[in-house]
C-alpha cells in the first residue's frame, strides 16, 4: 500500500477553488430533429454539451467513485429523452435537458448547448445554448 502525503495549508486562500464544473462535451447522438421536410423522419447527428457547476459538497473530495458526480446519468437521460421521440426545435430539446440536470443535487449553475454539424457545408454547426448565467 502506497502512502501519499497530503499538503494541508500550503495552498494560499487566494488560490482556493471558487467553482467546480463537470463537463460532458460534444456527446454525439442521432436525433430526429428539425422542421424542414428533408429533416423529418431522418435522424441526424447532434452534439450535446452539458456544463454543470456544482457546490463543494457535491464535488468529490476523495478518490472514490461513489463520491463522484455521475456522468453516466447525463448520457443515459439524454439518450432516453431522444431515443423514441422527434423534436422540431433544438430549443425544446435543450430546455428539457436543462430541466433534467437543474433538478439534480448540488447544481449551482448550468449551461446546455446543442449543435447540428451537418446542416450547412460552410459551418461547423448550428445550435442553441441555454445557461443560468
Q: Could you list some keywords that capture this structure?
A:
133 residues, alpha+beta, GTP Cyclohydrolase I, domain 2, 2 helices, 32% strand
Descriptive notes:
This protein is of the alpha+beta class and 133 residues long. The protein has one domain (25-57, 67-131): GTP cyclohydrolase I, C-terminal domain/NADPH-dependent 7-cyano-7-deazaguanine reductase, N-terminal domain (GTP Cyclohydrolase I, domain 2). The protein is built from two helices and five strands; from the N terminus they run E-E-H-E-H-E-E. It has helices at residues 71-83, 90-102; strands at residues 21-33, 44-54, 86-87, 107-116, 126-131. Strands 3-1-2-4-5 form a five-stranded mixed beta sheet. The model has no long low-confidence stretch (mean pLDDT 92).
Amino acid at each position: 500500500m502506497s502512502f501519499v502525503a497530503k499538503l494541508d495549508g500550503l495552498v494560499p486562500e487566494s488560490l482556493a477553488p471558487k467553482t467546480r464544473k463537470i463537463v460532458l462535451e460534444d456527446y454525439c447522438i442521432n436525433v430526429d430533429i428539425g422542421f424542414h421536410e428533408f429533416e423529418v423522419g431522418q435522424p441526424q447527428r447532434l452534439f450535446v454539451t452539458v456544463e454543470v457547476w456544482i457546490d463543494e459538497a457535491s464535488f468529490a473530495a476523495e478518490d472514490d467513485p461513489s463520491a463522484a458526480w455521475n456522468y453516466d446519468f447525463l448520457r443515459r437521460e439524454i439518450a432516453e429523452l431522444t431515443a423514441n421521440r422527434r423534436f422540431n426545435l433544438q430549443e425544446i430539446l435543450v430546455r428539457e435537458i436543462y430541466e433534467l440536470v437543474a433538478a439534480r443535487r448540488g447544481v449551482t449553475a448550468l449551461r446546455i448547448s446543442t449543435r447540428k454539424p451537418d446542416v450547412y457545408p460552410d459551418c461547423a454547426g448550428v445550435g442553441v445554448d441555454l445557461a443560468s448565467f
